[in-house]
Write a structure and sequence with these properties.
single chain, 522 residues, mainly alpha, 22 helices
């Protein structure tokens, strides 16, 4: 193979790494945001302690930095028992020793830390997954394109299957997949931060000192995340190269190192060596060989491989070889040979909507249990290739959802779309008349209806995925108590108390038409 094609392949890996860097930049922002949030929580916990005891900042710092000896505590207890002493001042001191106040703060910070790191893990995984899906598809097609450009033959090839991409992305190499590695990194960071907070507890570090240490540890975590996304990107790009070699019938590949002052000795040693595609092994003869690895591979096309590709490039109508124009770039090639084909478009939708579809799949499984395809890939196949069956499943999902009581919907909190929630809410409000005890006096029946309506409203808001909208609803349209509702109806409708209670019963099943219309329900 000429140096020209090797340079092209090395340049392609460089471009993939540039994309990985952009993803790493986004992940670094997550770590910075988490660091600032934790710093804010530290200050907030300190302020709550200070406010609770009506202390100045200097007094609070002094008390938190004190380490009391046992005899000092005994002395304070004696003073507390003595009559006439300022018990409030002594109680404040008793509640303030470092081994109590700081431990309480440490416990609170650890709880916040666990929540923060769980969020970092989930958001980082989303960023990784989105990038890897785009990279996998492009790496496969780009590799096929390079082989066609190199040979000059527009041979037939299979479109990339999302199931194959999913398998490669989630495969465990060197014992773990990317999700495992993200979890390990975030948990290691959480453990390190907890250790630092404990050291701060024991040594009495200032808030500023502790905040600086935490910020530095988060920066280390962000660096590890960057290393992970770059190394995983190298692995994924090379594995998709391998898939393209198999598809093209190429049996051998060459190891191609990026040769500069940063190149490791092991990559230099392997540069240019040939290996069978069937015997590729990450870390042994196939990149990545180590963290931050930038090496790649290139197909080693034999005369036998070329003969087979020529056969696959024959136009069945003319019997002539289909050539790839020398001036055709990747975008033009993709539009001609990939885009526009029904299967390719369906596959592209699967990849583009992977994260949203995965979330939808988990939601449907929580509702329908075993009445949906067992595998996520089969769920996507049905969604994009079987429209009638998909519509039936959606209707089945909503019907089952409407039957569910809020008490059995723990997995669905903050997971449902506004339309799904509204349909559920309407279905449950419509049951109120049948649930009110008709043997009770008017006021008790009206109270029952009011309580059930408020329960349904609160439950519906708990189920909303859009929690920003939920907060606005809580602020602008909060639940009203029974007496507030009575007063409102008496003022707005000119009713007396009994008439207002009857109106509560009559309107308990009615929902706002403007909202229903907005969501396409009327």
């Amino acid at each position: 193979m000429s140096d020209y094609w090797q340079r092209r392949k090395a340049q392609q890996m460089f471009e993939y790494m540039a994309g990985a860097e952009e993803t790493a930049d986004q992940i670094a922002k997550l770590y910075l945001k988490a660091s600032r949030y934790l710093e804010y929580e530290m200050k907030d916990i300190f302020e709550r302690f200070r406010t609770k005891h009506s202390l100045s900042e200097a007094e609070a710092q002094r008390l938190l930095n004190q380490i009391y000896e046992p005899d000092k505590l005994a002395e304070l207890k004696k003073l507390l028992a003595a009559k006439g002493e300022d018990k409030r001042a002594i109680l404040t001191e008793l509640e303030s020793p470092a081994y109590r106040a700081r431990i309480e703060r440490l416990q609170q910070l650890n709880v916040q830390l666990d929540l923060v790191m769980q969020q970092v893990y989930e958001q980082e995984k989303i960023q990784h997954t989105a990038w890897y899906l785009d990279l996998a598809s492009e790496a496969y097609y780009h590799s096929v394109f390079e082989i066609q450009k190199q040979t000059g033959l527009a041979f037939s090839f299979s479109l990339i299957d999302p199931k194959k991409i999913d398998r490669v992305i989630n495969s465990k190499w060197l014992g773990e997949n990317y999700s495992d590695r993200i979890w390990k990194n975030t948990q290691d960071l959480a453990d390190t931060l907890k250790e630092e907070l404990l050291v701060s507890l024991v040594t009495g570090r200032t808030e500023r000192e502790t905040a600086e240490i935490i910020a530095n540890k988060f920066a280390v975590g962000a660096s590890k995340a960057r290393r992970l996304v770059r190394t995983e990107s190298c692995y994924l790009a090379v594995q998709m190269d391998m898939e393209s070699y198999k598809e093209c019938g190429i049996e051998m590949y060459r190891f191609l190192a990026t040769l500069d002052l940063k190149t490791s000795e092991m990559c230099r040693e392997l540069d240019g060596k040939r290996f069978p595609v069937s015997e590729q092994e990450v870390g042994k003869n196939c990149p990545p060989m180590h963290p931050w690895c930038r090496s790649t591979t290139t197909g080693d096309i034999s005369d036998e491989d070329l003969a087979e590709l020529k056969r696959r490039a024959i136009d069945p109508e003319t019997g002539r070889s289909i050539k790839v124009p020398a001036n055709m770039d990747y975008r033009q090639w993709y539009q001609k040979y990939v885009a526009g084909k029904p299967k390719a478009e369906a596959n592209e939708k699967k990849l583009k909507n992977y994260a949203a579809d995965r979330e939808q799949y988990e939601k449907y499984r929580a509702i329908l249990k075993d009445d949906i395809p067992e595998r996520f890939t089969d769920f996507q196949d049905m969604k994009y290739n079987e429209p009638e069956r998909w519509e039936q499943l959606k209707a089945q999902k909503q019907a089952r959802l409407n039957q569910m009581d809020f008490s059995e919907m723990g997995e669905l909190k903050q997971k449902l779309g506004n339309r799904e929630v509204r349909i559920w809410y309407k279905a449950h409000d419509e049951q109120i008349h049948g649930l009110v005890d008709p043997s009770l006096p008017l006021e008790q029946r009206a109270r029952q209806a009011c309580e059930m309506r408020n329960h349904n409203r609160t439950a519906a808001r708990e189920l909303m995925k859009d929690q920003k909208a939920r907060k606005e609803l809580d602020l602008n349209d909060p639940n009203k108590t029974f007496e507030q509702l009575i007063e409102q109806k008496m003022q707005r409708k000119g009713l007396n108390r009994d008439e207002a209670m009857k109106d509560i019963l009559e309107t308990a099943t009615k929902t706002r038409k403007s909202v229903n219309r907005m969501l396409g329900l009327e």
